[in-house]
Design goal:
Largest sheet: 2 strands, antiparallel
Number of helices: 21
GO molecular function, one term: NADH dehydrogenase (ubiquinone) activity
Strand order of the largest sheet: 1-2
Protein name: Na(+)/H(+) antiporter subunit D
Distance between the termini: 28 Å
Radius of gyration: 22 Å
Structural class: mainly alpha
Pfam family, one: Proton_antipo_M
Family: Belongs to the CPA3 antiporters (TC 2.A.63) subunit D family.
Membrane topology: Multi-pass membrane protein
Order of helices and strands: HHEEHHHHHHHHHHHHHHHHHHH
Length: 514
């Protein structure tokens, strides 16, 4: 049996089976649950790395479920972009799981929800048709609802309810858009849609375009584009640390869907100006949010909005060189944000309630402190504040786009591509200004928070466990590794971008009998 041929289904089936098994285990068997979860994520990591190598080929790997070929059966398509996203998801899942073992793992259904979220994310990145994209979106959202509520607390419940309502509305739009597209094309297979869309009769073009527009709104809500992303900062800032670290990739699912379908169906031409200026507005909104945030959690959540805006603006340029830099930025920024979300809990542990810059405002409005789990078990580490400070410095350099971390290289790559044509177009200068302004805003906001946490206040030294700091260090080490291996990484992202802008190989691989 050729096991490599079944690799695309493993990142979906394994977390599904693990999540189901964890639901059956009693809450008293926390060590067994931790062992099962860690073993599953370890195997998923091996599979994701193998999938990354398998996908580094001229044509994507197609897995037909039940051996039914497309467009009649369900297919998973593992190309370079999907493989990168699966590996990124698994890395965040492993880091969040290890971090959660200290304080969050033993409460509620966190271990099972984490596995179901990984299953939904991996399926969304690998699926080859729109209906299953909708199914996997719903699965990951249901798991994320539970994770957003995990840990209780008034602020967390309030923000999570907003998150649930907004995403339910977006899911309804998703279903309406998919239905309209199916009504005029007769298929939801992505590869077949590439062929059917140009053949749609003139009389049906309005329905097709309406369906595509509604679908785009649903994706942009999930990508937190301005003004549809108002829900994100409050929800992510209120979520528990390991859940927020995993959520760092949720908005990237919306960005991924826009990138995949926008280039596949319309060649990057339809609505490019709207997408560009929407991305710019999102970046500016996020930068303002970072400067206005009263706590480090708010800064991290607003930084996530900035990264979504930057990616959407870059995607709208429809240039393979810009897209490759955007993919590099996507990976690096997601790793840095996940590390920062986990770091927030550790640095705030040392601070008295209401010690944030303007926390007096929270007291004036009667904002409650969330309930937190009890003290974790395990050895604490020495020189805690020094290590936290180094980790915070790494996150600051990454999110501000400063050398030597990969966000700097990604921004240089995007600017090199966007400023290459002569004369340079006006939108290129706007994108340049966005990258500079958002980087400066991140530097100011994080430096201000860092001074308050590590310098200006006489904070008590927090009790930090090794298994809490290790995943943060691992994510930042991956950022540094991306810088060291920038050459091979950029080659991979350039190949992925070239394939996205020339989807013929994708269509030929999925529909070989045309």
């Amino acid at each position: 049996m050729n096991w490599a041929a079944h690799l695309p289904i493993l990142p979906v089936l394994l977390p599904l089976a693990t999540g189901a098994a964890l639901l059956l285990l009693d809450a008293r068997t926390s060590r067994m649950k931790a062992g099962v979860g860690l073993a599953s994520v370890f195997v998923q990591l091996i599979a994701a790395v193998a999938l990354l190598r398998l996908a580094d080929a001229p044509a994507p790997t197609v897995y037909a479920l039940g051996n039914w070929p497309a467009p009649f059966g369900i297919v998973l398509v593992a190309d370079r972009l999907a493989a990168v996203m699966v590996l990124l998801t698994t890395l965040l899942g492993a880091a969040a799981l290890v971090f959660s073992l200290a304080r969050w793992h033993g409460t509620g259904r966190f271990p099972a929800l984490l596995q179901f979220l990984l299953m939904g994310l991996n399926g969304a990145f690998l699926t080859g048709d729109l209906f299953n994209l909708f199914v996997f979106f719903e699965l990951l959202l249901v798991a994320s609802y539970g994770l957003a509520l995990h840990g209780s607390g008034v602020a967390r419940v309030r923000a999570s309810l907003h998150y649930i309502v907004v995403n339910l509305a977006a899911s309804l739009l998703f279903l309406v858009g998919v239905s309209l597209i199916y009504g005029v094309t007769g298929t939801l297979n992505m590869a077949q849609l590439v062929e059917r869309i140009p053949e749609v009769a003139v009389a049906d073009r309005a329905i097709l375009e309406s369906g595509a527009a509604i679908l785009a709104i649903a994706f942009l809500v999930k990508a937190a584009v301005w003004p549809l992303g108002f829900w994100l900062p409050a929800t992510y800032a209120a979520a528990s640390a390991p859940a927020a670290a995993l959520f760092a990739i949720l908005s990237k699912v919306g960005v991924y869907a826009v990138l995949r379908l926008y280039l596949l169906f319309f060649g990057g031409q339809a609505g490019s100006e709207l997408l560009f200026y929407g991305g710019i507005a999102t970046g500016v909104f996020g930068a303002a949010g970072m400067l206005a945030a009263q706590g480090l959690g708010g800064v991290a959540a607003s930084s996530l909005v900035v990264s979504s805006g930057t990616l959407l603006a870059a995607i709208s340029r429809s240039d393979a060189g810009v897209t490759s830099g955007a993919l590099f930025y996507l990976v690096g920024s997601t790793l840095g944000l996940a590390a920062l979300f986990m770091l927030v809990e550790l640095v705030q542990r040392a601070r008295a309630p209401g010690a944030d810059v303007l926390a007096v405002t929270g007291e004036a409005f009667g904002i409650d402190n969330d309930e937190e789990p009890g003290e974790g078990s395990g050895p604490a580490i020495p020189a805690t504040m020094a290590l936290l400070g180094v980790a915070f410095l790494g996150c600051t350099l990454q999110l501000a786009g400063m050398p030597p971390l990969p966000a700097f290289l990604a921004k240089v790559s995007m600017l090199s591509a966007v400023l290459a044509p002569t004369p340079v177009e006006g939108p290129a200068w706007v994108l340049l200004a966005l990258l500079l302004v958002t980087g400066l805003a991140a530097l100011v906001a994080l430096a201000r928070a860092g001074v308050a946490i590590f310098w200006a206040e006489a904070s008590a030294v927090p009790r930090v466990l090794l298994i809490e700091l290790a995943p943060i260090a691992a994510l930042l080490a991956l950022c540094l590794a991306l810088t060291i291996a920038a050459g091979p990484a950029m080659r991979y992202f350039q190949d992925a971008a070239d394939a996205l802008h020339s989807p013929k190989a994708y269509v030929d691989a999925v529909l070989p009998r045309r």
